[in-house]
Design a protein that fits this description.
The complex is a heterodimer of chains A (339) and B (362). With 339 residues, chain A is an alpha/beta fold. Chain A is built from eleven helices and five strands, in the order ααβαααβαβαβαβααα. In chain A, strands 1-2-3-5-4 form a five-stranded parallel sheet, sandwiched between helices. In chain A, α1 (22-47) crosses α2 (62-69), α1 (22-47) runs antiparallel to α10 (285-295) and α5 (137-150) runs parallel beside α6. The longest helix of chain A is centred in the first third of the chain and has 26 residues, at 22-47. Chain A is globular and about 50 Å long. Chain B is an alpha/beta fold. Chain B has helices spanning 6-20, 34-37, 44-52, 60-72, 91-104, 134-138, 151-163, 211-225, 243-253, 268-279, 302-308, 312-322, 330-334, and strands spanning 3-5, 24-28, 53-55, 76-81, 114-119, 144-146, 168-173, 180-182, 196-199, 204-208, 230-234, 237-239, 256-259, 289-291. In chain B, strands 3-2-4-5-7-6-12 form a seven-stranded mixed sheet, with helices on both faces. Chain B has a five-stranded mixed sheet with strand order 9-11-10-13-14, with helices on both faces. Chain B has a two-stranded antiparallel ribbon with strand order 1-8. In chain B, α8 packs across α12 (312-322). The interface between A and B is large, with 43 and 46 residues.
Chain lengths: 339, 362
Amino acid sequence: MICSIAEGRVFAKENLHEELPEATLLALYRTMVRIRRSEEAAAALAESREIRCPVHLYLGQEAVAAGINANLKPDDYVFGNHRSHGHYLAKGGGLKPMFAEFLGKATGCAGGRGGSMHLIDTERGILGTTPIVAASIPHAVGTALAAKIRGQDSVSVSFFGDGAVEEGTFHESVNFAAVQNLPVVFVCENNFYSSHLGLLKRRRCDNIYEYAAGHGIPGVAIDGNDVEQVYRAGRAAIARARSGGGPALLECRTYRWRGHVGPAWEFNLGIRDVNEVQEWMKRCPIKKLGERLLALGIASQEELDRVQSEEDAAIAEAVDFARVSEFPPLETMSAHVYA
Amino acid sequence: MRLLTYGRALCEGLTQTMDADATVFLIGQGVNSPWYVGNTTEGVYDRFGPQRVIDTPVSENGVTGLAIGASMAGMKPVVIHPRMDFMLLAAEQLIGQAANWNYMFDGQVNVPVTIRSIVNRGGEQAAQHSQALQAMYAHIPGLKVVMPATPRDAKGLLIAAIHDPNPVVFIDDRWLYGVEGEVPERYFAEEIGRAKVLRRGTDVSVVATSYLVQESLAAAERLAEAGVSVEVVDLRTVRPLDEETVLESLARTHRLVVADTGWSMCGISAEVAALAACRGMYDLWAPVERVTLPCCPAPMCQPHETAYYPRASQVVAAVYRVLGANAVSYSRLAAGIGTSIPFSYPPVSADGSRLEAAESTR
């Protein structure tokens, strides 16, 4: 199920083909590598049962989080879902608090009370990720409404999967944002599967971006494995929202390499074909940008390798930090319950 | 002190809070429509405009969710659900998201949203426009649930709810909108989580919620004429429950009637009875009596409705049951005759047909 890429009609075409500055490309590369290597580390920790909470790995989808978040300011809001490690890291969330949270430690970003599905960094506009499908879409809309009422120019981004558009809350939220002309960008990461069921077993047509037209806002489908394309589309939608142009829907077509939850590849469960996974892995977003950087002479292979080794070192340090951290004391179990 | 109706007190509390705090905004279906909200938002739209008074599409879960999102960003939204029944569509956002958020993120993000949930019943609206679901929400750690029964509390508890840093389900009752009482003109908040003794008595404690507080006061008046001294405790907040005020009252009277506008099973009345059993057993001189809805959905036709909703007469009957004097009929009591005619509940005649005993007391 390799997707075709529908061309967006709404964003100006020149925006979608502009060359990006070298520094931007290198930053995008580093962010994607950080996500990739973190997720591989998390997968190993889950396999060894050091991570006991459910982990929904973002492997394969790195370009979406990296490309969108690179356009955001610290006080812009990002809302995610169960598969939000990438969103958190790309918005600037730290490795140590993330791995400590995976291990349920008091030093985790949510104090060891949330786990992998509940990442938070209030300093960077991440007010909490939540795994209930589509539940955070109205939260993003609400923060955008707050910005409008207060006259602030922040933008909110809502990340959700292709399953979320099957929830009524998605439509309620997009409709409200449209009628109120709110500064929110809806980013659907269409990875073609809900937990276990393929897209065309859940809907008649592969046309999520067309919901935008139904709600009277711009919508575009883009290659979610091409970080430059994601960056440019994200930049256009975010700038438009920031300047009072209202919401937009980006359907980023991508693929999760592993199964729905945990480190398993899920090849032999009757869910998806091994060839399909291999086809998508050939379209690895990091490999694609790395080849571009080499071809353009922006970076050498040694420099790309160094990015990875630096990120690996930071991740190893974060895992060590998580390991030596303490669990929250048992007597704090009911802390923060006020009624 | 100045008299104000419950409905106007709600409106005054909202208006004063929006005047005092620019982060407060009102949102929901029909927020500006008397058809939905009576007179409780009168003049608010004209005063604060479309930025802060937002009538919405028919999207209960989405609208509740976006109010929760706005509250995470530092706003204090007031969401109106014009029927508590419609609010079921927003249960996930309220129970799954709002109630858990502060705990799940280690106290880093508060959700200061107020959910104003209106109970309306009667008028042959049938089972889906009548429900009082406070017990469902009171079950959830992380939600506060308040149910004002007097005009003063309608204002004071609404102001408190809006300023509370946590999600508060504020349940008001259209049967109370016309009730008049003393309400301070000033901007004031009542404390959430405190019950109040509205009438002192020595024989029986009646612990009540919402409109049944008013019915219990009427019942106490009638019982006083028959020489029975009833203490009426207005619960005001059902989560957190003010256990001490209830137990202190029980320790004075030794008999307990609980009157709640919901059902009995796992209801507020069950929780108060459990409180008496667990912490007040040695003060109890008689089994606890409960006045609740019959365990069936709200009926439609007028005779059934009249029998379905408890009124002062049912409270009177329950008081006599805990006194061991299940021998007085409400109709004779109301006529001022202390008697020994057997009383059956619900009132039925010898041939099994229902008697006209459950008429309104107002």
